[in-house]
């Protein structure tokens, strides 16, 4: 089966609908599926629930979908530099479910592995645990977290082969692999596609069985903040 599509619009054709649940990879502005996000904005799907570490910035990444009011709920860990995220949350326009970063990553991984839920100590005694089942193991209290299963996963990788095997670069591995596995359908955008067999099997981070559609494109290299250090006097 040919997994390679000519454009992000073609790769998303027939997959989008109002009210759907998406999982999006990326960490800050590193490794975000920017081309697919732009295509979702163009398609106009609305009332979206999106699980992602953060929500981009005001003019880039998932922040673009916030600006067009296409996101109904965010399941995330970090507001970051996104003023519109904060404004919509504080005004009651956006529903937000905050998760500790490790918990969110594990919820995605668990969903992809067919695990309905797991207990963790993270968040016990805080608002994160409110309304959730608590259980004691060996004298320690744990909170039940549920696995995430999304209608669609969108991720960004460095390289892919034609069968969908993916290789990520550095920080982009933080959320892209678990996000990819928890979607019923996974669409990946990559910087380079090579023939099958070209990738060293020991260097593959995500097997192609998880990836249903692929696009190749040019990506903007952004960071959230620049830091400077003056030379010593």
Into which percentage range does the β-strand content fall?
25-35%
**Helix segment tally:** 6
SSE arrangement, N to C: HEHEHEHEHEEEEEHEE
Average per-residue pLDDT, rounded, comes to 92
Chain oligomer state? single chain
Instruction: Categorize the overall geometry.
Output: globular
Characterization of the model:
The chain is an alpha/beta fold. Strands 1, 2, 3, 4, 8, 9, 10 and 11 form an eight-stranded mixed beta sheet that branches. The radius of gyration is 18 Å and the shape is globular.
Strand and helix map with partners:
Layout: H1 8-11, E1 21-24, H2 34-43, E2 48-51, H3 63-67, E3 71-76, H4 83-91, E4 95-98, H5 101-112, E5 117-120, E6 134-137, E7 140-146, E8 150-161, E9 166-167, H6 176-181, E10 183-194, E11 213-216
Parallel strand pairs: 1-2, 1-8, 2-3, 3-4, 8-10, 10-11
Antiparallel strand pairs: 5-7, 6-7, 8-9
